[in-house]
Every structure is written in structure tokens, then in C-alpha cells.
Amino acid sequence: MRQGSLRLGRILGIDVAADLGVIVIGGLLTWSLATVILPQGEPGLAATAYWSIAAVGALLFLGSLLAHELGHSVVARRNGIEVEGVTLWLFGGVARFRNEAPGAGAEFRIAAAGPAMSFLLGALFLGGAYGLDAIGVPGLYVVLLWWLGAINVFLAVFNLLPGAPLDGGRILASGLWKLRGDRLWAKVTAAKAGRFVGFGLIGLGLAEIALLGSFGGIWTAFIGWFLLGAARMEQAHYDGERLLGDLTVGAAMLPAPQTVSNWTTVADAVDGPLRSTAQQAVPVLDVSGRFVGLLTMAQVQRVPAESWRGTAVAAVMVPVAQVPVAAPGEKVTDVVERLGPVATSEVVVLEQGRLVGLLGPAEVQRALTLGRMSRGRRGGRPGVAQDSPAGPPPPPPTVPVQHWDPPVPSR
After folding, report:
1. What does the pLDDT look like over 2-38, one tens digit per residue?
2. Measured between alpha carbons, how far is residue 392 from residues 21, 91, 313, 326 in Å?
3. Closest to 266 measured CA to CA, from 315, 218, 207, 337
4. Which of 219, 243, 292, 386 has the greatest number of C-beta atoms within 10 Å?
5. Within 13 Å of residue 60, how many CA atoms lie on the same side as its CB?
6. What is the pTM of this model?
7. Any residues with CB less than 8 A from the CB of 160 and at least 6 apart, and which?
């Protein structure tokens, strides 16, 4: 579940949540339907009629977005992909998967399932509008169904634009993957196409404002700006994945990190590992040497400096249940997504229950830098983006970076 989202329940065994942005979208849609779309289609009715039907229409539209994402999720699950959940948010919805598609065919099926669901819903709503109109149902309901049908068809077509992160970009990536056999090259190319789509929408929105005087162009340009940023982050992610290659956690981690005991005071932890090492977090062990938690800079900052000497690490550490863990033999590319949850940006590396290392943003950045240097020495690999700016690429967008200078407690 996305941070800050509200869990709504489970549908078809899939967790469903919604961000607060859904309230904004629902409110805007209700207002637009009640004040513009419904009165234009069926004038002369009471305001209460427009607003009540508009509220139903907004809910049906949000349900259509959910059905679109569930289409992706159901097909993904049938192709052996673990589905983490679906979240509705300001720009529609997102289905989150724990692993990549096993092949180009699966990638295509998963990507195409969403637009196919939207086309199906569009056809059902339009057919319902035609049928209700034929039997003489009040026109207000007919107008609403016509609008729902048209908006679902529009969403399906829009999502088929050939650029990631849109569904059309995923379909493009699946075709390139099938054609060339290189998943990462296909993903990077689709992300580049997504940047062109983003620029195109921004230009279209600005032209709409300048030539037509329509403030709707602001929304078009804003969507283009969002897609441009998302495409850039996706390209950085897959470019970084190529640089990391098959590197294992054991090869990239910080081995044998300094630790503290759970009865150690916060002051001793600050004066010890947090001040004398480059570690962003310190593993906490119990009396038997078992890993029980992680002390991060964020936890230390929540404790007033004057209370450090009287506060045990066990009282402020991130408990073991909330700390992401990995095994030394796992690939870094499979573990990167575990970085950056609410509690900590470090992954603790355990081997048979024994602490052996830490993997955080600094270690991932170092691996990326070495990967770039190695690729440069080889002269680059075919199909890999060569136009990135100088220096190491940023970590994938899910990897936050902590910077903190510990305050000096009063003596």
C-alpha cells in the first residue's frame, strides 16, 4: 500500500486503497457533471437532481478506474506475478507488482488488459445509454451513461499512447522485447518514448491555451509534465538496473557493519557508530547477538538531545518486523524496491538469521558508479542509452538518500 493511502478492502483477493487525491478528483468530477455536463444534456431540472446524479456518476467513474487497474492485476496474477495491491490516486490508479513479467508475451497481456477493460466498460455504458433512451427512461440517466461511455473510451485510447509509463508504452516495450530479446533495452526505449509523449502533451496544452483561450489546456500541460517526470524516473530506474546487472547483495553490501546492543543509550550510539562511521543506520542486537532492530538517524532526531543519555536504543529503534531484509545471494536489482519504506532506507542482510551486512542508498550508488565505469571500459553495451549526463546515474526513484549531521548533546 502506498504511504498515506487509505485501505478500502480486498476485491478478487487484491488489496485496494485510495489516496486523498481521489477526494479531489471525485469532487471536481461531481462539480463538473452537476454544473456543466448534465445541465447541457438535459436542461431545466432542479439542482438537487443534477448534484445527486453527478455524485453517482463520479463514483461510477472511480469504479471504472479501479476496474482498469484490476484488469492489469488479474492478468498479472494469472501470469505468475505477485500483486501487491491497487491504489487510486490523483491521476487515476496504479497496480503494484512485486516482480517483473516473465516474458514479452506476459508483458503485453498485462499491459493490454487495462485498456481492454476500459473499452469494454465504454461499450457497456454506451449500450446502456442507447437502450435506456429507446425505452424512454429520463434523459438525465441517459446523458450520464453517454458521458461514462465516452470517458472510458477516451481513457482507453489515451492509455494506448506509445510511451511509458502509459499502457501503450508497456505494449511498445513488450514488442521491442520480443523483437530484440533485451528486456532492459526495451524498457529504456519505451521510457524515452514516454518523454516525447510528455513533451507533446505539454506543447498541446500550451497551444490550446494560446490559440483557443481554453484553460483546459492547463490540465493537459500538467498531465504532460507529470508523464515527462515519470518517464524520466522510469528510464533512470531501468538504466540503473542494467548497470547493476547480476550483482549480488553480498558483493554490494557494507559487510560487518558496526552494531549496538539494545540496552545501549542513544548518546552512546551517536558518539559511537553514527558519528565515527559513514553508516546511515546501526543494527541493534540483543544479549544473544540476534538482530532485533535498526537505529536510524530519523529515530535519533525524534529524541531531544538532553534525553539521549537516559534513553535506551530499544525504546526508539525500528523493530525487526518493520525492517526490510535480504540474503547475500539475492540480486541487488531484486532488492532495490525494498529500500525506502516508511521506517528505514536500509536493507539488513541476514545469512541464516545472522547479521552480515547493510545495503542502503550509498551502497547502491557505489554499485551504479562501478557499473558505469565498467561499461565505459568495455565501450558500452549495444542498445544501452549513451546520452545520460556525466557522472553516475541517480538511484531508482524508490531510493531516498539521508543526510544528517547529529546535534551535539549538552554535557
Report:
1. 555 788 899 988 999 998 888 888 999 999 999 999 9
2. 34, 31, 35, 25
3. 315
4. 243
5. 20
6. 0.71
7. 115, 166, 167, 168, 171
What span, in angstroms and rounded, lies between the C-alpha atoms of 285 and 137?
70
Distance CA(6)–CA(212), nearest Å, equals 39
Closest CA to 280 of 223, 229, 340, 353: 340
Catalytic residue among 42, 69, 337, 363: 69
Write out the three cell numbers for 291.
Answer: 538482530
Could you tell me the three cell numbers for 222? 500538467
Task: Name residue 107's amino acid.
Answer: E
Dmax over CA atoms of the chain, in Å, equals 84
Cell of 113: 488488459
Name the residue ranges covered by the structural domains of the chain.
6-244, 249-365
> 3-class secondary structure for 308-326?
HHHCEHHHCCEEHHHCCEE
Decide if 337 is catalytic. no
Q: What is the pLDDT of residues 82-139, one digit of tens each?
A: 898 999 987 778 888 878 899 999 999 999 999 999 999 999 999 999 999 999 999 9
Residue 285's beta-bridge partner residues?
261, 291
Helix (H) or strand (E) holding 32: helix 21-32
Beta-sheet strand order (sheet of 347-351): 254-255, 354-359, 347-351, 325-326
